Amino acid sequence: MTEAILKVEGLEKSFGGVHATDNVDLEVRENEIHAVIGPNGAGKTTLIAQLAGALICDDGYISFTGHNITRRPAHKRCQLGLARSFQITSVFQDMTVLANVALAVQAHQGHSFRFWKTARNDRQLNEPAEAALERVNLLDRSDILCNELSHGEHRQLEIAMALATKPRMLLLDEPMAGMGPEESQRMVETLEQLKGEMTILLIEHDMDAVFTLADRVTVLVYGRVIASGPPDAIRSNEDVKKAYLGEETINA
Questions:
Q1: DSSP classification of residue 3
Q2: Dihedral sign of CA atoms 250, 155, 57, 43 in order
Q3: 79-109 burial by CB neighbour count: b if 16+ within 10 A, else e?
Q4: In 3D, which of 164, 224, 166, 212 has the Cα closest to residue 188?
Q5: Measured between alpha carbons, how far is 132 from 45 in angstroms, rounded to an integer?
Q6: Each residue of 190-225: pLDDT tens digit?
Q7: Which residue of 3, 17, 36, 179 has the fewest C-beta atoms within 10 A of its own C-beta?
Q8: Are 3 and 83 found together in one domain?
Q9: Domain end: 144, 164, 184, which one?
Q10: What does the alpha-carbon distance between residue 166 and residue 146 come to, in Å, rounded to a whole number?
């Protein structure tokens, strides 16, 4: 069995009387896609915010690559290789797709952005940026301005910028939100290409995408884990059917 790269034990976060995460235990193994699903208000976004360091838990323990990161700030978690795609950097709409990813490479290397004008043609920046764009199927869009991208292409660009920082694990919070069927399918294909090479924790409402991509699935309801296991086991779990998916949907 592959070693867990992320371990969560007894995670607690409350807002007033609402338990957003309630004694959550979770393990994500290296190079797997692990999906977290649940109805609105289940605590999924609160969970991912605690993993990324945007929220500090009230109680519990988070370990990443063997390091206790429970109280570490977000930038320290990024240094260990834990990346939440939309937190990497802002997209500069009046710059090219390639330039945006090259900036992420530059940031990861620790260089100041004030040198960007002279560095914009630096192959040490552009080559890894092009490699990241190729992994998300955007290399042929590298020379266009970001304000010309579709919504789905923007989400692919965010993943490319995250990949440019050479993370050990990606935290993706609903990467297919707001997409039509064609854009969703392209995103699924993008994530399928990363499968087995990159550890991904995926929060997603699109159940077809979840069961296509995930190696394992954890189900949250009212902040508590009610089931965790392979997709087939989740499909047939009666508690999951009653609490969230519905028999007709989960057996589709």
A1: P
A2: negative
A3: ebbbbbbbbbbebeeebbbbbbbbbbbbbbe
A4: 212
A5: 26
A6: 999 999 999 999 999 888 999 999 999 999 999 999
A7: 17
A8: yes
A9: 164
A10: 22
Single-letter amino acid code for the residue at 36:
V
- CA 167, 79, 9: angle at the middle one, nearest 5? 80
Place of tokens 């950097």: 89
Determine the average pLDDT of the residues in 25-50. Answer: 93
pTM: predicted TM-score of the whole model, two decimal places: 0.88
Question: Tell me: the pLDDT tens digits for 82-122?
Answer: 998 764 446 888 889 999 998 888 877 665 554 454 445 67
**Which residue has tokens 């692990």?**
34
Beta-carbon contacts of 8 under 8 Å, excluding residues fewer than 6 positions away, are 24, 25, 26, 27, 51, 60, 61, 62, 63
Domain that holds residue 142: 89-164
Taking residue 121's Cβ as centre, other Cβ atoms within 10 Å add up to 9
CA distance 199 to 179: 23
- CA-to-CA dists, residue 127 to 75, 139, 141, angstroms: 25, 11, 15
Token pair of 167, please?
């993370």
Domain count, the chain: 2
Cα distance between residue 19 and residue 178, in whole Å: 28
- Which two three-digit tokens encode residue 34? 């692990």
Please tell me whether residues 223 and 177 are part of one structural domain: yes
